[in-house]
Amino acid sequence: MDRTEFVGSQVGGESVINYSYTDMPWRLMMWDVRYFFTFAWALPWVIWPVRPCDGDHFDELSFTRENLWCMFIHAILVVLQLFFILMLPLAVLFPVWMVALGIAVFFAVNRLLCFFLNGKTITFTSDPKYAPALEEHAHEQWIFLNGVAVGEAWLKSNINRLALTFKRPVIGVHNRTTGIIFDVVECLIQRNFGYATSDIRAAYKIIKEKLYNPQYTKVVFILHSQGGIEGGLVLDWLLQELPQNLLSKLEVYTFGNASNHFNNPHRHVDAQHVEKKVSKENTQIPTTIAEIPLTDSPVETHGASFEVNRRVPTLTSLSKESSASHATAYTVPASGRAIAHVEHYAHTTDFVALWGILHFVTNERASPEMPRYIGRVFKHTSPRGGHQFSQHYLNGMFPLARNSKGEFIGCADRNDFMSSVIEVAEAGTEKDDLREAVDYTWSMIELAGQKGNIAGGEVAVHGSFYERDDIDDGKVRVKDLSRLWQYRNGRSPPDLPRDLRRMTLE
Predict the structure, then answer these.
(1) Closest Cα partner for 343 from 398, 401, 278?
(2) Is the predicted pLDDT of residue 8 greater than 70, yes or no?
(3) Pairing of the two strands 376-381 and 3-7
(4) Prediction pTM value
(5) Do 121 and 181 lie in a common domain?
């Protein structure tokens, strides 16, 4: 049965993670190896389910010529790399020159096979037939960083799928594969030693250039799998070097994130103090807010039709006002963090997500000084909950629609995942579960009073997007909280106008 849970940063049960990404690398490696075997039961879901292939040629495991070629090369690489690893202990039985020659031959063959997958180019741009460059999106730049075992053909399919879904051109930064097994080894090195490979450096260069370019007011960074590790390292560098007003342009969305941390610090210490106190009733949150009308226009809201409200809202006042507001009035809080928006999407049967984001975000910290995994998280349990980007994540969460001829025309406006009801905290625990108070949310929005309640308690809405027509029944759905969903088919979520956005940074 499908179910979806919404999680803030570092919430969960009684288990405690007693290490962090700032610990000794050998210690991090030891824990990673341990939890690799702990979650090994989910390894088949890296490729399972093989069917359906609702995205046709976009799907990684569909029977196209390019996909079959990629799968054939990967099968050879898996056999060769397993044989190489198993034979390493026997190297002590042979002369040094023979071992050196064998290793050299193996890596030469491995590199040649990987060249057949990767090609020579490290950056790609989506095909204009899926999303031509439009004037209304000229201020945006979308960038994608892929995950494990992705060659040139799959990367092109991924960025074309994104372009078709969101109707924006997408730049793909190629995280080149060295074979599935060696890619996992590379993940361990990147995650535990902070080693930056060439694709990490390329992504950093591209994003930094786009953020400094005055043409762009928004840079959307989408990450998958190992791309979450690499993207996390890129963000660490950006947070060290870039001015706050440039970082506020950035939005990050991840799928099946394999990283062990995700940083996004507060801009002001006051915001951090507010987050610690927000669980108390009637805590006042000093922030500038705006009521912005939502339209069907694909153009981002930049007009003057907004009302700035500088009063200090409380939990109670926000609850009352949100219930009484017009169905198309969206409340957009000024983000208290350096990066404007961070969202994570993860399947609960995806091995990479279990080993990465779901392990680190759903456990309590042993110490308040330990790093946190920042960003709202959508945990989805589904029979089709595998790891492949297009076939499993996008087909399940952002499925495509077809016209009368059977051709893909964009993202379907309704699907089971986005319409699924968010599982909420038990009555009385909503305030304790809230972690991203200033980031996107001020408080729980009490909706149950409209048409009854759920189990005698309140519904906690940890998000800034809601429509009364959809949640008058007291049920909050994924589409009410997902910012990325607001971008489908060329649309844009309600945002603070540029002048107001600058004002909140002062």
Answers:
(1) 398
(2) no
(3) antiparallel
(4) 0.81
(5) yes
